[in-house]
């Protein structure tokens, strides 16, 4: 971990906070390294069943830091090859978020732009307050995009809307963002944290194998032919069906209580 990222675990929920509020949580090399380390820790901790990703202060993340100390930047102008190597290295965060076998929730306040938007889009669920503002930002800055932006955006809002958002590079308020599918729900600022924690708690209390399998199914559905997908889907369901989770769900239903699942 680094000072630019804060990682905590509370009752099965890991919270990762992007911690550069004075820079609106702009992405430095240290922050990106800390984020990758935090995700690795959460993935390897059997106690963690849900992951919340947020920004410190009034913003989620305004993208990569392009000012200040060049040693903290991803693209530093050392050489095209060195910049490319660094960019590919930090971009591993996106497949990590997409493929991590635990549900992820982005809690978005204020600015969410560029690579910061890519990170949010890589999360399973996204909740924002009414002050949130979104922008793909790349074309407006003379850049074509990184951190999986076009890949993620197309899957979130569809190819037609993705072209509009990517090419025009306009600022979008939360009410429009929820209509387009960029986020799942918009809430008053005073309710955002509570709603996000409520969702994280619900996911953390769900059957771990079922949640993991459902997330893998959703990802496979975007990339595998139907015939191959059905095989993977069947394997995951059988794994769940023969687990202690299913028996616990059945007994809890009969006893009219909430199920208590083990850490699988």
> Gyration radius, to the nearest Å?
19 Å
Largest sheet: 6 strands, mixed
Secondary-structure element pattern, one letter each: EEHEHHEEHEEHHEHEHHHH
Count of the domains: 2
Q: Count up the helices.
A: 11
Helix vs. strand class: alpha/beta
Overall, the morphology is globular
CATH-defined superfamily of the largest domain: 2-enoyl-CoA Hydratase, Chain A, domain 1
Any guess at the CATH architecture of the largest domain? Alpha-Beta Complex
**pLDDT averaged residue by residue:** 94
Helical residue percent band = 40-55%
CATH fold label of the largest domain: 2-enoyl-CoA Hydratase, Chain A, domain 1
Q: How many strands appear in the DSSP assignment?
A: 9
Strand order of the largest sheet: 1-2-3-4-6-9
Distance between the termini: 26 Å
CATH class identity of the largest domain: Alpha Beta
Fraction of residues in β-strands: 5-15%
What would you note in describing this structure?
With 264 residues, the chain is an alpha/beta fold. The protein folds into two domains: 5-204, 2-enoyl-CoA Hydratase, Chain A, domain 1 (Alpha-Beta Complex); 208-254, Lyase 2-enoyl-coa Hydratase, Chain  A, domain 2. The chain contains eleven helices and nine strands. The strands form two sheets. A six-stranded mixed beta sheet has the order 1-2-3-4-6-9, sandwiched between helices. A hairpin with a 2-residue loop joins strand 1 (5-10) and strand 2 (13-18). Helix 4 packs across helix 5. The chain is globular, with a radius of gyration of 19 Å. The mean pLDDT is 94.
């Amino acid at each position: 971990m680094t000072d630019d990222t804060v990682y905590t675990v509370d009752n099965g929920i890991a919270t990762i906070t992007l911690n550069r509020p004075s820079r609106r949580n702009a992405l430095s090399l240290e922050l990106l390294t800390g984020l990758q380390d935090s995700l690795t820790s959460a993935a390897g901790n059997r106690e963690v069943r849900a992951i919340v990703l947020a920004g410190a202060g009034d913003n989620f993340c305004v993208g990569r830091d392009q000012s200040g100390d060049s040693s903290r930047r991803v693209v530093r102008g050392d050489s095209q090859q060195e910049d490319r190597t660094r960019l590919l290295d930090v971009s591993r965060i996106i497949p990590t978020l997409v493929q991590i076998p635990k549900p992820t929730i982005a809690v978005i306040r204020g600015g969410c732009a560029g690579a910061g938007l890519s990170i949010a889009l890589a999360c399973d669920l996204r909740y924002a307050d009414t002050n949130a503002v979104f922008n793909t930002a790349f074309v407006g800055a003379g850049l074509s995009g990184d951190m999986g932006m076009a890949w993620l955006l197309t899957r979130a809002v569809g190819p037609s809307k993705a072209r509009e958002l990517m090419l025009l590079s306009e600022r979008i308020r939360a009410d429009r963002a929820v209509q387009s599918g960029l986020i799942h729900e918009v809430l008053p600022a005073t309710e955002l944290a509570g709603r996000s924690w409520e969702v994280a708690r619900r996911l953390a209390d769900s059957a771990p194998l079922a949640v993991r399998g459902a997330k893998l199914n959703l990802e496979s559905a975007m990339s595998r032919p139907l015939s191959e997908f059905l095989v993977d889907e069947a394997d995951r369901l059988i794994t769940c069906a023969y687990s202690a989770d299913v028996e616990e769900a059945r007994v809890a239903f009969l006893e009219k209580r909430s199920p208590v699942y083990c850490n699988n």
